[in-house]
Amino acid sequence: MSKELIRLRDLCMAYDDELVLDHLNLYINDKEFLTLLGPSGCGKTTTLRIIGGFTTPTSGDVLFDGVRINDVPPYRRQINTVFQKYALFPHLNVFENVAFGLRMPRVEEQRDENGKVVSRRKVKVPEEEIRQRVLEMLETVSLKGFENRKPDALSGGQQQRVAIARALVNRPKVLLLDEPLGALDLKLRKDMQIELKRIQQQVGITFIYVTHDQEEALTMSDTIVVMDKGTIQQIGTPEDIYNEPKNAFVADFIGESNIIDGVMVRDRVVKMYGREFACLDGGFAENEPVDVVIRPEDIDIVPPEEGQLVGTVTNVTFKGMQYDIIVDFKGFKWLIQTTDHSPEGRHIGVKIDPDGFHIMKKSQYSGMFGDYSSYSEEYEELSDADALDEEDDGEAARREDGYAE
């Protein structure tokens, strides 16, 4: 059974009377990869800063191994942090960047039987130990042989690994990561997701990761904490969060979801659009209003005469491995992800198996998500932005070649 390492107890944080964290309670286990996931302003980075000691909560407690550490400064916590900006020293090579923290003298304290500090002394790590630990850590982050390179001779992913090595070489019990992949391109970001999980498993310590990217959270995490407006909406494994969302906010934020108003007629029967559908859920009151979640990949397109529902295709977007198809069902737009192409204007039928429905109780988020009416407009805006970027790139190239007036 995993040992609890950190507990956040009834944390509140306010700035100018604005409540950023609202009585947050959370525990984090030793050697766990836990991700704080949510939109900008949800309180995830504030939570991370409180754990690291960079911010003091307005009220509540932070416990580390059962000991309250609210007033312990960051440098005395067994915690290190990797930020989105890696802050490497440009004048130092990779070896010296990683060794920097080890060269700083640490203070050892001696206490009496009552826990009172009776003496302090500065201790330096021997040079041979520094060399051994740095080289071991560079091998761990796959940078063996890069010791003499300067940061400006490294790629973004390599710079990030140096920052991680520098944070881990001091052997903390916890590593905090505040959106560290944000500056990387898509392919490198995907590669680093796998790399970060490998490093965490190899060094065997707790990683607490902050992101707004649900793919990062699903790929790397043992546990995901979904946050919104300073509160925790759901805690669970990636599989639980995706397959069993607690409310419409979680269902919409984790992946794509069609969220439709329905009525739970009885156990394992839900009604929407005036029709009854078999599902696997139960435990609701008879005829209780509910939110019905249907993931886009759980919908099969069939001929209209074979469909449980019939709608009209209003938008088709090719995504490489699949088509994203928007279908109008009585004014409510669904998203369907399929390998089968259906052109705009075609009438289609859809079928959903009983395990394709997930039923949720109504919440404050009901009615706010799940309708893809603005989907095509969003794609048009993205296309316009891409076109402007291409124009800017072309203009820059012409200026470099001397063609600009």
Could you give a quick summary of the protein structure above?
The chain is an alpha+beta fold. It has helices at residues 44-52, 94-103, 127-140, 156-168, 186-203, 214-220, 238-243, 248-253, 375-401; strands at 4-15, 18-29, 33-37, 59-64, 67-68, 79-82, 106-111, 117-123, 174-178, 206-211, 223-228, 231-236, 258-266, 269-272, 275-278, 288-294, 300-302, 309-318, 323-329, 332-338, 347-351, 357-361.
How would you explain this protein's 3D organization?
By secondary structure, this protein is α+β, with helices and mostly antiparallel strands. The protein has two domains: about 5-240, Rossmann fold (3-Layer(aba) Sandwich), CATH 3.40.50.300; about 255-375, OB fold (Dihydrolipoamide Acetyltransferase, E2P). The protein is about 25% helix and about 35% strand. It is built from nine helices and 22 strands. The protein has helices spanning about 45-50, 95-105, 125-140, 155-170, 185-205, 215-220, 240-245, 250-255, 375-400; strands at about 5-15, 20-30, 35, 60-65, 65-70, 80, 105-110, 115-125, 175-180, 205-210, 225-230, 230-235, 260-265, 270, 275-280, 290-295, 300, 310-320, 325-330, 330-340, 345-350, 355-360. The strands form five sheets. A six-stranded mixed sheet has the order 6-9-10-3-11-12, with helices on both faces. Strand 19 and strand 20 (about 330-340) form a beta hairpin. Helix 2 crosses helix 3 (about 125-140), helix 2 (about 95-105) packs parallel to helix 4 (about 155-170) and helix 3 (about 125-140) crosses helix 4 (about 155-170). The longest helix has 27 residues, at about 375-400. The N and C termini lie far apart (about 70 Å). Residues about 380-405 have low confidence and may be disordered.
